[in-house]
């Protein structure tokens, strides 16, 4: 059962899973971000460079671009929250993606031509970058007190101050939407039989 109070969405969030101990907010976040990695592994498995670059329409995103963009979103958000350099430049991921060492290169505002020009690396590079970012999310979540989730940021959403927990949840939601888009594009390209249950 998810419990909410006026103070915080996160401080009292406890969800029992499978009859075991209730999960705290940090465990929920870790599991959610880990699900992104699992979705990437499933959706990207067996795709060719052509599959990764295919766009169902000239102004639609490709699977490769979406995989890159969602990981950039995770990486840039975590770096902002912890006040450190993005792994994109710190660990040289930009070079592995053959892109500039520009921390602002996240995909927001990309034109259809920029999306079409995106050249995907091999699948393992996508997965390794996302794993590196996930490890940072996990370390941050495990090493900080839950009160950190209530820390206000210098950001606003519809006139409301944004807190760390809200930002982490909104990025998680956005990334899960992108994995759904990736699965849909793969289904358009290959039919529904690509996903094995």
What can you see in these coordinates?
- With 197 residues, this protein is mostly helical.
- It has a single domain (24-194), classed as Up-down Bundle (Four Helix Bundle (Hemerythrin (Met), subunit A)).
- Helices cover 54% and strands 7% of the residues.
- The protein has helices at residues 25-44, 49-53, 63-82, 87-90, 93-96, 112-117, 123-143, 164-190; strands spanning 15-16, 22-23, 152-157, 160-163.
- The protein has a two-stranded antiparallel ribbon with strand order 1-2. Strands 3-4 form a two-stranded antiparallel ribbon.
- Strand 1 and strand 2 (22-23) form a beta hairpin.
- It starts with 14 loop residues before the first strand and ends in a 7-residue tail after the last helix.
Q: According to CATH, what is the topology? A: Four Helix Bundle (Hemerythrin (Met), subunit A)
Rounded mean pLDDT is 89
- Rg: 18 Å
Beta-strand share of residues:
5-15%
Q: What is the topology, as strand order, of the major beta sheet?
A: 1-2
Number of domains: 1
Shape: globular
Within CATH, the superfamily carries the name dinb family like domain
Low-confidence stretches: 1-15
Quote the distance from N terminus to C terminus: 28 Å
- Which structural class is indicated by helix and strand composition? mainly alpha
Main beta sheet: 2 strands, antiparallel
The CATH architecture is Up-down Bundle
CATH class: Mainly Alpha
Number of strands: 4
Helices and strands, in order, run as: EEHHHHHHHEEH
Number of helices: 8
Helix content: 40-55%
């Amino acid at each position: 059962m998810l419990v909410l109070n006026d103070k915080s969405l996160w401080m009292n969030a406890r969800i029992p899973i499978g009859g075991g101990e209730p999960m705290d907010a940090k465990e929920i976040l870790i599991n959610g971000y880990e699900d992104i990695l699992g979705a990437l592994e499933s959706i990207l498995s067996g795709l060719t460079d052509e599959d990764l670059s295919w766009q169902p329409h000239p102004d639609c995103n490709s699977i490769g671009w979406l995989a890159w963009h969602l990981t950039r979103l995770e990486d840039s958000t975590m770096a902002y929250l912890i006040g450190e350099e993005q792994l994109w430049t710190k660990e040289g991921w930009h070079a592995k993606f053959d892109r500039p060492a520009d921390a602002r290169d996240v995909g927001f505002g990309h034109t259809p031509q920029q999306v079409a020009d995106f050249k995907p690396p091999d699948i393992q590079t996508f997965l390794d970058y996302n794993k590196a970012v996930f490890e940072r999310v996990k370390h941050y979540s495990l090493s900080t007190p839950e009160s950190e989730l209530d820390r206000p940021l210098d950001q606003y959403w519809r006139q409301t101050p944004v807190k760390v927990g809200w930002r982490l949840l909104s990025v998680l939601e956005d990334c899960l939407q992108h994995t759904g888009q990736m699965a849909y594009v793969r289904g358009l390209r290959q039919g529904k039989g690509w996903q094995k249950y």
